[in-house]
């Protein structure tokens, strides 16, 4: 096997929260927006098939049989507070966030170098993908409405927890299979060590984003960077 530095990277899969965008944008802007609007959203749109589907999935995940709409709302609010990476919650949050982006209530945060670096990597022929706990809809909204403009044309595909949990090896095996690359040619970027461990177990290369004020540890388990500019795929 070639040493990591000599292996050609053909695709980059990036996490969002803590990697391209601040944790604060997700926790202090997106989550509170969804929390505030979720009860009214479910009351107003609860009869739409896609909303009904995810409400049902949430109740199933919680093991609640014949839950009332109010019980499911309370469950979802609790899950937002716990930052639970539930596929059903994430799907519903994505639907709610759409309104906030479209009314200009917020634009998504990108670390300052991210847009230019993604453009440069794409210009060099690398294929770019996203893998986040946020739903694919939420990911597309986030990259369409950034402070640096619409970045969606740069991405070839998006993966969420419908592919599998981010801390499980099998999820990364599915991703490389879906994008049609050998794992050693794919670089996964994240701020979460357990996600990187899972990606490495699947054979991907890894890059650990430790954004200031976090500091690089003396002997990081994964190649570690404070910004995308330091990464040379
Ligand atoms: C797609 S934006 C919202 C991100 C989100 O809901 C979340 O839980 C963050 O997950 P990530 O996997 O990007 O760290
Ligand atoms: Mg993250």
UniProtKB/TrEMBL annotation:
UniProt keyword annotation of Amino-acid biosynthesis present: yes
Catalysis: reaction(s): 5-methylsulfanyl-2,3-dioxopentyl phosphate + H2O = 1,2-dihydroxy-5-(methylsulfanyl)pent-1-en-3-one + phosphate
The protein's annotated pathway: Amino-acid biosynthesis; L-methionine biosynthesis via salvage pathway; L-methionine from S-methyl-5-thio-alpha-D-ribose 1-phosphate: step 4/6; Amino-acid biosynthesis; L-methionine biosynthesis via salvage pathway; L-methionine from S-methyl-5-thio-alpha-D-ribose 1-phosphate: step 3/6
Metal-binding among keywords: yes
EC number: 3.1.3.77
Entry keywords, A to Z: Amino-acid biosynthesis, Hydrolase, Magnesium, Metal-binding, Methionine biosynthesis
Top-rank taxon, per record: Bacteria
A matching Pfam family: Hydrolase
Cofactor: record remark: Binds 1 Mg(2+) ion per subunit.
Co-factor requirement: Mg(2+)
InterPro entries per record: Enolase-ppase_E1, HAD-like_sf, HAD-SF_hydro_IA, HAD_sf
Oligomer and partners: Monomer.
Family: Belongs to the HAD-like hydrolase superfamily. MasA/MtnC family.
UniProt cross-references to PANTHER family, sorted A to Z: ENOLASE-PHOSPHATASE E1 (PTHR20371:SF1)
Classification via HAMAP family: Salvage_MtnC
Function: Bifunctional enzyme that catalyzes the enolization of 2,3-diketo-5-methylthiopentyl-1-phosphate (DK-MTP-1-P) into the intermediate 2-hydroxy-3-keto-5-methylthiopentenyl-1-phosphate (HK-MTPenyl-1-P), which is then dephosphorylated to form the acireductone 1,2-dihydroxy-3-keto-5-methylthiopentene (DHK-MTPene).
Name this polypeptide is given: Enolase-phosphatase E1
Organism in which the protein naturally occurs: Dyella flagellata
């Amino acid at each position: 096997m070639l040493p990591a530095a000599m292996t050609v990277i053909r695709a980059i899969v990036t996490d969002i929260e803590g990697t391209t965008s601040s944790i604060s944008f997700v926790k202090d802007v997106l989550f509170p927006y969804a929390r505030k609007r979720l009860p009214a959203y479910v009351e107003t749109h609860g009869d739409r098939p896609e909303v009904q589907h995810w409400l049902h999935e949430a109740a199933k995940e919680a093991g609640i049989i014949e839950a009332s709409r109010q019980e499911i709302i309370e469950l979802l609010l609790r899950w937002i507070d716990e930052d639970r990476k539930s596929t059903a919650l994430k799907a519903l949050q994505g639907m709610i966030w759409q309104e906030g982006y479209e009314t200009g209530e917020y634009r998504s945060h990108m670390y300052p170098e991210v847009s230019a670096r993604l453009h440069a990597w794409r210009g060099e022929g690398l294929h770019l993908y996203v893998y986040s706990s946020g739903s694919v809809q939420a990911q597309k909204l986030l990259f369409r409405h950034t402070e640096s403009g619409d970045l969606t044309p740069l991405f070839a595909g998006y993966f969420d927890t419908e592919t599998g949990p981010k801390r499980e090896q099998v999820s990364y095996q599915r991703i490389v299979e879906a994008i049609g690359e050998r794992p050693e040619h794919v670089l996964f970027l994240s701020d979460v060590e357990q996600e990187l461990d899972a990606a490495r177990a699947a054979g991907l290369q890894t890059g650990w984003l430790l954004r200031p004020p976090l500091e690089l540890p003396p002997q990081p388990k994964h190649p570690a960077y404070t910004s995308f500019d330091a990464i040379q795929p």
